[in-house]
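Exercise 7. Given the components listed, write out the predicted structure of the assembled complex. Treat all entries as one system.
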Amino acid sequence: MSHTAVGLRARPAAFLVHWPSRLAWIGLGLYVLYAAGQVNVSWDRIVSGMPQAAKLFGRMFPPNLAADKLDLITTGMLETIQIAVIATVVGVLLSLPLSVMAARNLSPGWLAAGARVFIAVCRSFHPVIVSILFVKAVGFGALAGVLALIVSSLGFIGKLFAEVLEELNEKQVEAIRSTGAGFLNVLIMAVLPQVFARFIGLSAYQFDSNLRNSTMVGIVGGGGIGAALFTAYQRFDYDVVLTILIVIIVLIMLAELLANNLKKIFR
Amino acid sequence: MNAAGGGVLSITGLFKEYRSGEPVLKNINLEIEASGVTAIIGPSGTGKSTLIRCINRLVDPTAGHIIFRGEDLSQLKGKALREARCHIGMVFQEYNLVERLTVIENVLCGKLGRLPIWRPLLRKFSDQDITRAFDLIDSVGLSQEFASRRADALSGGQRQRVGIARALMQEPSLILADEPTSSLDPKTSVEIMELLDQVSREREVPVIVNIHNVDLARRFASRIIGMSAGQVVFDGPPDALQDTHLNEIYGGEDWQA
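Answer.
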């Protein structure tokens, strides 16, 4: 009170404290501390684990480049790439109609709601879990991996495509509708041109994601390099593991390059 | 109803409510003749756009009849509605071109109502349509070099010319223009109105234009319809439009210099 006596008129605070967000941040901080205590994350364990890690890395070098191993890795890698390419292409093609159904500005409410539920179910499980189901259903091998990755592709690009479609410029669509064009012609000439470049970008991202996941599905019998990687771990052939990891890294980088170039072409 | 009346378009008892109990259009009755520019003037929010959009059913009317080519547009659905739309060209305030398509693709969009989907999908338009599209690009005052430019690379005036070419590609029996000059500078506005007037006379197509600019309406229209609060309060030739009418349409007189 005495401060106002100086003669300055009391003025409202310029920046009000936003209590809900402050509480949310504090809550998050407290939970992280609590969870860290629960799962026994401690500095001691990190320190005592260091020599173990050093030993593991020591056994990884140099990478194993023996001809028979390279042969095995090449076969596995090629299968991984095939799984990723097929899953992406089929997944994208199936996502196109699915996302149109799920876009609330293009479909009636009941259809959009149904399509959204389907997409959400596809996205609920990690590809590895889905591929366990498919390995049980169709047996060991690449087919199970392909099917699992198609499902997860639908879950992700179906949703992302639908979101892009919902941001359509309605004026362009309205103009084409006013010429008497039917629904499919409107999709081809008014909708597709607007969204095509972003669809390519999202598909490239999904390919990248499928490539990574297709290295995983092999672990549960879904085909590809995953099987070789898992076997190498179990046999303590860490030098082979390193070779495989390097090949995967190179592959992901190549996929990144490919994606960038695609985006440049389809601007 | 009155095919003998000589009108291309006959609107009777048209009502539109976006929210029930709040009509935007209140009992509109209009008869549009076979050619010439009809200008609809009136303040913003008075239902001019709604009226025009009711005609090609981008907006569904609440009640009333819109007779065009012997059919009641207000009752049409599905295929019959699309077929009717083929005969009605529309020009928009913000041009509404598909930005990522080229000029000629945009013009060819005017044909979409009459094409099976594989033609636009594979861009396999007939030679006849392509020739016609080039001719139209020419006739709206653009050089044919523009054909392969993307719409988003054009200026406002150029875009509106493409918009008019797209409408003409439909070989329409009626052209609706919703504020076609409101996004353009004064000089370009005059050019676009000249073009619409020329199109109307040379191709004998009636053009209905919503327009804010009373001077442009007077200069190019053969008939002016003044709307206020969802009703027609003036309907006559430009010469008959007096200041008292304008006061009635726009309310007050302070805005008149």
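Discussion: The CA atoms of residues 102 and 117 of chain A lie 9 Å apart. Chain A has one domain: 67-266.
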